[in-house]
Design a protein that fits this description.
Blueprint lengths: L5 H8 L12 E5 L25 H13 L5 E5 L9 H10 L3 E6 L12 H7 L3 E5 L5 H8 L3 H13 L12 E5 L10 H16 L5 E4 L6 H10 L2 H10 L14 E4 L5 E2 L2 H6 L30 H4 L16
Parallel strand pairs: 1-2, 1-7, 2-3, 3-4, 4-5, 5-6
Antiparallel strand pairs: 7-8
Helix pairs in contact: 2-3
């Protein structure tokens, strides 16, 4: 049995039960770590030189699993830049043929890469939902976090998606944007920031979207090292712990999402995947016999879990509570 984590102890102090898995409805697959960007906050340390990638055999296994598992209603594709994996399209199209909701976690700039010219039309044709990174409406802030000229290229990526109907409520093509802070702070209230994004993106660029999702920067990997170099890591961890919000716990994504790595290893969440904390006793997709094996299983926790439960909370679907506690 694993030793009790600091997060487990905080749950107990708030008279909350241990964190266990519920019914799995979402399969989140990290198809590889190759990306055209190398962002400072990237918790999987993706970049142009990474070569780890999901292969054809695993792609076929995932589609078979979806076909055999009616309870899985969503395939969530992430990376790296998932579009750079050669099996991204077969996964997305195959899951849509099976009637599943498919999400592409897009960094926007990848749409400008050679060979990606028809990606927006592919996404629209298969009615894939796009969740796109845009951490600010200011070029200076975005470029400081993600690299020179990334904001300009992101706007162009949004325009290419808009040309296919994304952001237009009449099209039914869902486009959500993602905000994360530049530094060691919690996101502002999601609804207020969404109003600001709508106003500024419409006035400046004529860009529309469905929802804005706010994410908290996780104190792991690149971002943790950056904070450590600045002498800010312990203060940031303290901020997250001190803003623990019990109202976020019920909606944590690890309860209903199974995270699958590019090599088929299973995790409770994408952050555990980044930290190399696989499911205990059931660490490979090939070993998954039934979904009953997962329900009620303890979730592996650590201090990074405070990032999902601080303030209004943070998940792949944005804030978890209406207001921070």
């Amino acid at each position: 049995m694993e030793p009790t984590s600091a997060f487990d102890r905080v749950l107990a102090r708030h008279e909350l039960p241990p964190l266990n898995r519920g019914r799995t409805t979402t399969l989140q697959v990290n198809v590889g770590l190759r990306c055209d960007l190398a962002c400072h906050h990237c918790h999987v340390e993706a970049g142009p030189r990474r070569r780890e990638a999901l292969d054809e055999r695993l792609a076929r296994s995932i589609l078979r699993l979806l076909e055999q598992s009616p309870q899985l209603d969503t395939l969530d594709l992430t990376g790296g830049a998932p579009e750079l994996n050669p099996h991204f399209r077969s996964l997305a199209a195959g899951a849509r043929r099976l009637g599943r909701r498919v999400i592409d976690r897009c960094n926007l700039t990848v749409l400008l890469q050679p060979g990606q010219e028809d990606t927006p039309s592919f996404l629209a044709r298969h009615r894939v939902e796009v969740i796109a990174s845009l951490p600010c409406t200011s070029a200076e802030t975005v470029d400081a976090q993600r690299g020179r000229f990334v904001f300009e290229r992101s706007i162009e990526g949004l325009r290419r998606l808009a040309a296919q109907g994304y952001g237009d409520p009449r099209s039914g093509l869902a486009l959500d944007l993602v905000y994360n802070p530049l530094g060691a702070e919690l996101p502002p209230p999601q609804s207020e920031l969404e109003d600001l994004y709508r106003k500024q993106l419409d006035e400046r660029y004529g860009i529309h979207f469905r929802h804005l999702l706010t994410l908290t920067n996780m104190p792991i990997k690149r971002f943790a090292r950056q904070l450590e170099r600045r002498g800010e890591l312990e203060a940031y961890l303290g901020l997250l712990v001190n803003h623990f919000n019990p109202a976020t716990v019920e909606g944590l994504m690890c309860r209903g999402t199974l995270s699958v790595a590019w090599d088929g290893t299973l995790y409770d969440c994408d952050f555990n995947q980044a930290l190399g904390l696989p499911l205990q006793g059931l660490s490979r997709l090939a070993a998954l016999g039934s979904w009953a094996q997962l329900e009620g299983r303890p979730i592996r926790t650590g201090r990074h879990c405070f990032g999902c439960t601080a303030g209004a909370g943070s998940s792949c679907g944005g804030a978890l509570a209406p207001t921070a506690q």
